[in-house]
């Protein structure tokens, strides 16, 4: 909640500096064209769901249609709920288990999907930086972006190697010891689940074809998602090339992911659009209007996702508060 407050304040401050009226006027000029943004987002989400589906080894597995809905719900939770941007992944693993996946299989597939998505985002960010260097002269801002991307890459590698080193199981064992000390059986029982999750992670990581397919599909999702930026630019009356759209999408997505602790990346995403947009020659007002179009799309696409979550929990599973087992 503190991170949410800070992010919201930052977003409001950034927009306020450049004038609410000018930015809102630019957003409203898009009109019903925003519907195109909402409908188009189904395409990158399809690639994301396909990437996740390749990691699920269990047969029978949930149908692809159900995996698509769960992926939609997960993204909606990350974008709209007051949780860190990984909160939707816990929901995703839980719903996958409710649909028939074993608990460890569901959890491992989500963890590795997130990891492959981060590696794909790393590659996509490098593409964006390369295009940015190609379009404009090198300056201190580009140098700062490159340094930031490299730091982000180091964090991704740390996350990956922590999984391969069995850190999840070790964390479970530490939690179990704490549970034993305070007399909490529920914490003590957690260790069995974390060991099974470690085993499932290692089993999937041994299947490199699945990993490569997932990473390729996640990269395809980022590339396809650049079409949203291109559509947004055209709706605002600034028709740009595909290269501009890729640059903006790549760098802002990296900035938002780095600020994963802030719900919805509030403030960070707007700052990314502002910095990269102005580097490409867009006015601050248009850059922030483009960022707000992204927010409008997240709301219009995410609210139905939350509604689907509510329906699944209450009609299919019977109780939204049931805790996942295994």
Task: Spell out the blueprint of helices and strands.
Blueprint: H1 2-18, H2 20-28, H3 34-40, H4 42-53, H5 64-80, H6 87-98, H7 103-135, H8 140-164, H9 167-182, H10 185-188, H11 190-205, H12 208-235, H13 242-258, H14 268-279, H15 284-316
Helix pairs in contact: 1-14, 2-15, 3-12, 3-15, 4-5, 4-12, 5-6, 5-15, 6-7, 7-8, 7-11, 7-12, 7-13, 9-11, 12-13, 13-14, 14-15
List keywords for this structure.
326 residues, mainly alpha, disordered C terminus
Shape: globular
List the uncertain runs: 319-326
The strand count comes to 0
Strand content: under 5%
Order of helices and strands: HHHHHHHHHHHHHHH
Number of helices: 15
Mean pLDDT over the full residue set: 82
Largest sheet: none
**End-to-end C-alpha gap:** 29 Å
Report Rg: 21 Å
Structural class: mainly alpha
Helix content percent band? over 70%
Textual characterization of the structure:
By secondary structure, the protein is an all-alpha fold. The chain is built from 15 helices and no strands. It has helices at 2-18, 20-28, 34-40, 42-53, 64-80, 87-98, 103-135, 140-164, 167-182, 185-188, 190-205, 208-235, 242-258, 268-279, 284-316. Helix 7 (103-135) packs across helix 12. The chain starts with a helix and ends in a 10-residue tail after the last helix. The model is unreliable at 319-326 (pLDDT under 50).
């Amino acid at each position: 909640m503190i991170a949410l407050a800070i992010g919201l304040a930052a977003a409001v401050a950034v927009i306020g500096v450049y004038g609410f009226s000018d930015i809102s006027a630019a957003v409203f000029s898009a009109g019903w064209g925003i519907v195109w943004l909402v409908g188009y987002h189904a395409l990158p989400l399809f690639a994301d769901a396909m990437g996740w589906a390749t990691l699920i080894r269990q047969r029978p597995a949930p149908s692809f249609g159900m995996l698509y809905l769960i992926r939609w719900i997960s993204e909606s939770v990350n974008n709209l709920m007051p949780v860190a941007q990984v909160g939707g992944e816990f929901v995703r693993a839980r719903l996958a288990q409710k649909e028939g996946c074993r608990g460890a299989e569901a959890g491992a597939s989500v963890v590795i999907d997130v990891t492959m998505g981060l590696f794909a985002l790393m590659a996509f960010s490098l593409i964006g930086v390369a295009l940015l260097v190609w379009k404009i002269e090198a300056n201190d801002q580009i140098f700062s972006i490159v340094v930031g991307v490299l730091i982000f890459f180091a964090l991704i590698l740390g996350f990956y190697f922590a999984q391969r080193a069995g850190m999840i199981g070790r964390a479970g064992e530490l939690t179990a010891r704490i549970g034993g000390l305070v007399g909490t059986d529920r914490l003590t029982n957690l260790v069995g689940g974390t060991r099974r999750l470690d085993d499932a992670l290692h089993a999937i990581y041994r299947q490199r074809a699945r990993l490569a397919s997932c990473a390729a599909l996640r990269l395809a999702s980022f590339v396809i998602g650049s079409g949203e930026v291109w559509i947004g630019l055209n709706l605002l009356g600034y028709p740009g090339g595909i290269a501009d759209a890729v640059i903006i999408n790549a760098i802002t997505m990296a900035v938002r992911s780095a600020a994963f602790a802030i719900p919805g990346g509030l403030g960070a995403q707007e700052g990314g659009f502002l910095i990269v947009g102005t580097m490409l020659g867009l006015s601050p007002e248009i850059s922030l209007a483009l960022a707000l179009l992204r927010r409008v799309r997240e709301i219009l696409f995410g609210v139905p996702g939350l509604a689907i979550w509510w329906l699944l929990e209450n009609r299919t599973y019977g109780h939204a508060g049931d805790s996942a087992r295994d």
